[in-house]
Amino acid sequence: MVPKKIPQELPTYPDFMYICKNKMQMNRHKYMQAAIETARQGIREHAGGPFGTVIVKDGCIIAKAHNCVLRDNDPTAHGEITALRDAGRRLGSHDLKGCELYTTGEPCTMCLCACMWANIDHVYYGCTIADNALIGFRDAQFDEKFGGRGNFKDFLIQLDREKCLALFEEYRQMDDALRY
Ligand SMILES: [Zn+2]
Known about the structure:
Layout: H1 28-44, E1 52-57, E2 60-66, H2 69-72, H3 79-91, E3 99-105, H4 109-117, E4 122-127, H5 129-134, H6 139-145, E5 156-158, H7 161-172
Parallel strand pairs: 3-4, 4-5
Antiparallel strand pairs: 1-2, 1-3
This protein binds zinc ion (ZN).
């Protein structure tokens, strides 16, 4: 069921997706789809790589963002970071406990730490660190230096890799896509 009204404690989002909490489990794919669509918008605007993120609280998407490294000339403007900033502003808090984050690519070391600083409950990711390397990104180099992913098995959960791989392929085939 779709609630008629947006609760007053949450600011409205321009194209707010509204999904009931009790359907959260079955809607995880919808949240990832929203992350994919955000990423697709980002690559079409040449804002950055094919990395989109949405943050969900109580079954509602409260923030979404894509990678803006190229558009903003900001090496930290990964999709997860920009979404965390958006969520903090919207919730009026630095503490995102109770939120889940959905992102098209497995978070890099920087973003993984940022999610932990933000107290995100769980991170759902599509493509893996190894997939990121296949389209020209350097996550794996850093990941190796920081000791890999073995300690984060309960925190990082893979979801819808095939759909995210299709997005990555779309990016890979863009002749004018910049790598960094
Ligand atoms: Zn990152």
